[in-house]
Amino acid sequence: METCIFCEIIHKKAEAYIIYENELVCCFLDKFPINKGHVLVVPKKHYQEFSEVDGKSLNEVILISQKVAISLENLLNTDG
Ligand SMILES: [Zn+2]
């Protein structure tokens, strides 16, 4: 099985603050945030290249990213 830091976080073998996950995606705080509320939304299935990600996972990443963004805007009172 191929592994990477994202897979380790998804399989709870590396520490991360997970804010949301479902069967397709995992969302967690970036370990080295460039600003407050820096969240990574990643597919649970490992892909070496972005161009290889299956449509179902990619669709879920975008939809969940929008939900996370809306939540962060409300929580942090940002303007976008
Ligand atoms: Zn991986």
**Proportion of residues in helical segments:** 25-40%
Number of domains: 1
Portion in strands: 15-25%
What's the CATH class label?
Answer: Alpha Beta
What's the architecture, going by CATH?
2-Layer Sandwich
Would you write up a description of this structure?
By secondary structure, this protein is an alpha+beta fold. The chain has one domain (5-76): HIT family, subunit A. 35% of the residues lie in helices and 18% in strands. It contains 2 helices and 3 strands, in the order H-E-E-E-H. It has helices at 5-10, 55-76; strands at 18-21, 25-29, 39-43. It has a 3-stranded antiparallel β-sheet with strand order 1-2-3, covered by helices on one side. Strand 1 and strand 2 form a beta hairpin. The longest helix has 22 residues, at 55-76. The protein is globular. The model has no long low-confidence stretch (mean pLDDT 94). The structure holds zinc ion.
Task: Give a concise summary.
With 80 residues, this protein is α+β, with helices and mostly antiparallel strands.
Considering the chains and any ligands shown, give keywords for the structure.
globular; HIT family, subunit A; about 20% strand; alpha+beta; binds zinc ion; 3 strands
Write the layout of secondary structure elements.
Blueprint lengths: L4 H6 L7 E4 L3 E5 L9 E5 L11 H22 L4
Antiparallel strand pairs: 1-2, 2-3
The structure holds zinc ion.
